[in-house]
Amino acid sequence: MKLVYDEIESPIGIVLLILRDDAVCTLDFSDCADRSRRLLTTRFGAVEPVRAAKRPSASERVSAYFAGEVDALDDITVAAGGTPFQEQVWAALRRIPAGQTATYGNIAAAIGSPKAMRAVGMANNRNPIALIVPCHRVIGADGSLTGYAGGLDRKRWLLEHEGALLPMGGALAASA
């Protein structure tokens, strides 16, 4: 098994992309590398990714996202490798369009487990593929910005970039 990686410059930090067989298995910010390494080790053991010989198309799509094409990540192939429940949650996250948000309760209801809001939150927390599996689009039931592994400043930036928040950090403009 071979894992390859690439680094992508973005307005909010360097993004680390790791692929296996052309499917993204990790996408995170480089300053969250310890978290990414833990998730990778849990899934693959002590495998060290090698730098991609040529820039993967997924890297081009991530760059396009940051350049304003907020739908550029929608159909990238992923291989998150979670439990069946996590995979169900992550699939529901991918159905939240750019520019919209959802609550943990919305996601729980969407997967047919309306009382599983905390379990949805835990699955969201273990998402190894930031941006593409858009956990940043999940907000608190009261509309507040809740935890994000990359930090709440990045979460706010991403939502504003997608048009989900008013430019000066005002109220949410859209919700699912």
Residues in β-strands, percent: 5-15%
Count of DSSP-assigned helices: 6
CATH architectural arrangement of the largest domain: Orthogonal Bundle
Unreliably modeled segments: 166-176
Distance between the termini: 39 Å
Radius of gyration: 15 Å
Broad CATH class of the largest domain: Mainly Alpha
Counted beta strands: 6
Quick one: biggest sheet?
4 strands, mixed
Percent helix, as a range, is: 25-40%
Strand order of the largest sheet: 3-2-1-4
Estimate the global geometry from the Cα principal axes.
Answer: globular
Secondary-structure element pattern, one letter each: EEEHEHHEHHEH
CATH superfamily of the largest domain: Winged helix-like DNA-binding domain superfamily/Winged helix DNA-binding domain
Secondary structure class reads alpha/beta
CATH fold node name of the largest domain: Arc Repressor Mutant, subunit A
Output mean pLDDT. Answer: 89
